[in-house]
Amino acid sequence: MHPMLNTAIKAARRAGTIINRASLDPDRLTVARKGPRDYVTEVDRAAEEAVVEVLRTAYPDHAVLGEEFGLQGPDQAEFQWIIDPLDGTTNFIHGLPNYAVSIALTQRGLVTQAVVYDPSRNELFTASRGGGTFLNDRRMRVSGRVRYHEALLGAHWPSPVDADHASASRFRNMAEGSVGVRRLGSTVLELAYVATGRLDGFCGVGLKPWDLAAGSLLVLEAGGLVADFDGEQGWMDSGNVLAGTPKVFTQMMTALQPKA
């Protein structure tokens, strides 16, 4: 295992310990609102501090981009860690155990290492570029699903009240063609589930780099495809992403196109 991946695993498990401890008494959480339906707790901040401490102690020349504290370290660093200390904060606040720690390492903008850790289930998803995707040390692949009407999708897209009619109809077309859509409230877990065959595809809108960096490598190293809505590689910048098994991905892309 790559030493940088080992460091990321150590950091993710340390954050997971903080999260699990706090989950035992959720009523004591201090919750602040960052925006509409966007919350942060002291657990998010403590988990991010723990992750950053591990990463920057091991690699002081690396930069770290985190959801809660922004960019720390040199602006033009060759290596940058992209982290989400608790993806699924709303689930966590409500005691719904669908949340995870996400850590990715980029080298000159290319994601090379990825860790997604689900502390409530003790599931550790890892990937190294060129080395495959693993769940708790077991090699994983995307599902073999080929028929779109049998595909189960994950989603992070606007509800009708958040989007104009035309945009909403695009996602409705995609949803109606599949067997079902699940909105789990944690993008990093949904991408991990695509990588391990629990979901066959994922569609996300308006996401951030820390939502996508680690999960994208998991999917790619498990044999899946990742692209933006135009089939290009601009999803990290636009925040709009499709991911899935090769056959399902192609059909998702077709379903997303506006009908004439």
TrEMBL record:
One of its GO terms (biological process) is signal transduction. It is an enzyme of class 3 (hydrolase). Mg(2+) binds at E67, D84, L86, D87, D211. GO terms for molecular function: inositol monophosphate 1-phosphatase activity; metal ion binding. CDD domains: IMPase. Its cofactor is Mg(2+). Pfam families: Inositol_P (PF00459). The keyword Transcription does not apply. It catalyses: a myo-inositol phosphate + H2O = myo-inositol + phosphate. Gene3D superfamilies: 3.40.190.80, Fructose-1,6-Bisphosphatase, subunit A, domain 1. Keywords: Hydrolase, Magnesium, Metal-binding. The keyword Lipoprotein does not apply. Belongs to the inositol monophosphatase superfamily. This is Inositol-1-monophosphatase. It comes from Bordetella trematum.
